[in-house]
Amino acid sequence: MTRKQIPPPEAPPGWLRQTAGAVPLEGEDAQRRRGCSLLVIGAGAIGRTHIDRIQRTPGLALAGIADPSDAGRALAESLDVPWAPDHVSALEQFQPQGAIVATPNPAHVPMALDCLARGVAALVEKPLADSVAEAQQLVDAQARSGVPVLVGHHRRHNPINRQARETIASGQLGRVVGANAMACFYKPQGYFDMAWRREPGGGPVLINLIHEIDMLRFLCGEIVQVQALASNAVRGFAVEDTAAALLRFESGALGTVLLSDTAVAPWCWDFCAGEQDQYPRQDVNALFIAGTHGSLSLPDLSLWRYEGERHWHRPLTREQTTALKADPYTRQLLHFAAVIRGEEAPLCSALDGLRTLQATRALLDAAASGQSVTCAVSTS
User: Fold this and answer.
1) What is the SS3 assignment for 248?
2) Nearest-CA neighbor of 197 among 206, 186, 184?
3) DSSP letter for each residue of 329-375
4) How far apart (Å, rounded) are the C-alpha atoms in residues 85 and 83?
5) What confidence tens digit (pLDDT) does each residue in 183-232 have?
6) Which helix (H) or strand (E) segment is 245 a member of?
């Protein structure tokens, strides 16, 4: 094996200003210099992540926090920003340009619909809804209103995945024939003190693996068929602790995924991609994409191929690209601001969120039934 080091790629068009610390261009109006005004609905862990990024990013402004808890009110007071106990009051009083729905899953669609009814763009955390039917309601409402909806699959905004998508689209892998994603990690017992995490809807397929499903869709195309198994043999809760699935993509490529939140292992995007500091960084890969002319591992962006004849007796060459480093949550918020201004189309639209939810739900349905489940690709 020989190894080549390739310099980092130039930022794709439209990305140069999507970095923390970006300075507004001369000539922009006063509103843009003040920053895009964003309301955060829900002050839990992911809501606080968004609040932190908004507070630290030029070009963004925190319009207020909507959260019924004492902790939410205390957070707003500590940041000296407006607070409201409910999202409707906040939308009407604070008049934000956009709202981030970071609440428990059952509230996602009703709150997003309230945003659209008031002409306020919504960034809805994943999963888009509890059910595909609910997600379809939001897709339809967005199409009628024309008000933008962005779904919080933040990994799409990681430069690693953007570079991987460009590599695949360039044809360097030839025809993609297979993909493998792993999400193996250990959740401590205290994580399950919240009862909903032990009940249907709170398991690692919908909470964690949905990210891998969305990454595979982003990189390899639509998923049209799923076979799966799930187990709760370790913890015995009403939800899975381990799952495995076989996927068929619209292109004919096949994929496999392995998930366990009771495995002591490093093969997890959160561990190896360095997106969040609370996860100790591991020097491993968690996603592998195989093609007829080359293969790609992530997050290290190693491209494996032959320099000459493709033959299993010939040496493989490893080329490694270093992607631009940037926080995907910050990039997602800056992209949301650009969507609100009409400068960019949503990288993960309501329809994208529906399709990812559909494929993820198909995995659970296939595991429950023991049958292959077909995903009808929506064209709404």
Assistant:
1) strand
2) 206
3) HHHHHHHHHHHHTTSS--SS-HHHHHHHHHHHHHHHHHHHHSS-EE-
4) 7
5) 999 999 999 998 989 998 889 999 999 999 999 999 999 999 999 999 99
6) strand 242-249
Beta bridge pairs of residue 254: 178, 248
Report the C-alpha gap between 206 and 213 in whole angstroms: 10
Residues 6+ apart with CB under 8 A from 272: 266, 281, 282, 283, 284, 285, 286, 299
Phi (first) and psi of residue 215, to 5 degrees:
-60, -45
Judge if pTM exceeds 0.85: yes
State the sign of the Cα–Cα–Cα–Cα dihedral 194, 195, 196, 200. positive
Please answer whether residues 276 and 155 qualify as being in contact, where contact means their C-beta atoms are separated by less than 8 angstroms: no
Amino acid at the residue 37: S
Residue 313 to residue 77: CA distance in whole angstroms: 66
From CA 147, how far away is CA 365, in angstroms rounded?
Answer: 32
